Amino acid sequence: MRGRYTDVAMQEIEPVRLLAEPAIEVLDQTLLPHEERYLVLRDLDAVCEAIRALRVRGAPLLGVTGACGMVVGAGTRGADDASLGHIAAALKATRPTAVDLGTVVDRAHRAALAAGPDHAARLTALRAFAETFIETRKREDRAIAALGAELLSVGSAVLTHCNTGTLATGGVGTALGVIGAAWETGRLARCYATETRPLLQGARLTMWELQRRGIPATLLPDTAAASLIASGRVQAVITGADRVAANGDTANKIGTYGLAAVAARHGVPFYVAAPLTTVDASCADGSSIPIEHRAAAEVGGFAGSRWAPAGVDAYNPAFDVTPAELIAAIVTELAVLRPPYAESIMALIRQR
Length: 352
Fold this sequence. Notes:
Elements: H1 6-10, E1 16-19, E2 23-27, E3 38-41, H2 44-52, H3 59-77, H4 81-92, H5 99-114, H6 119-149, E4 156-160, H7 166-169, H8 175-184, E5 188-194, H9 201-213, E6 217-220, H10 225-231, E7 236-239, E8 243-245, E9 250-253, H11 256-265, E10 270-273, E11 279-280, E12 301-302, E13 305-306, E14 319-322, E15 329-331, E16 336-337, H12 341-351
Helix pairs in contact: 2-3, 3-4, 3-5, 3-6, 4-5, 5-6, 6-8, 10-11
């Protein structure tokens, strides 16, 4: 045992917490790693702004936030049929690519309606759903971590992209949970993390988490990732996912597709770690996944600093799609899926 395991090192961090008011307390991830500031969100508009502004982010954690947001929205705007429909629609419209948000909001919405027409009963049902979902999310993370760690040989070095730890899920993480479990069991020697431009989730968030967990880690520019893979220094690439299509095509942070393509070129396995809530069986393939495009201003500067001329145009998709044929395995909380994914995904969904 390596000592500082994920659960111990990160247990004091709660990126999203449902309060009694009703309100949500969130760790403002836009300020990390320099400042740990928690915000209390007391109305639907504040929750939606926090999601859009990436104060809270990560596909699984957006599901948690959606469930909690339904509680806040119903508590402040009402729980009648029309109000619940408006609250759910507002939350789902904030980030289009991460399927967990919409899936979990819809489940919370149905739970409220099933409680009957009484306002208090619907609020109780929404809170019970959110609290149960948070605990389920943590349990699923631990299962993903244990299953994924077994894919790595002793002494492996891995490359990861973006942030997939506690800050992205509320539990031990998906891909970063796998990395933490591999470190604990002696399978991991080092984790390499990309900066993940333009918003630097790897440099700011993943490296912050890796340091807290005591895992040996090296930061690299996104542009150095292909060279690193080609050098033979990493034995696997592992990322999370924001949506998995029925055929196994996977949407994740922009730059993931390039990593998968280079990994395939050099015979390095590319793994995806994600809960089953990330699977969207209604999407036949990656061409049906909506891709969020963000403001040009994010590309030319960060945190108040500008290095590009004001007013420049920019191509700024937040995600790209990795074809299923480049993915060696998809790690879920129930099983490690292998190609052909159209068959293995549907078989697992039918077992639930």
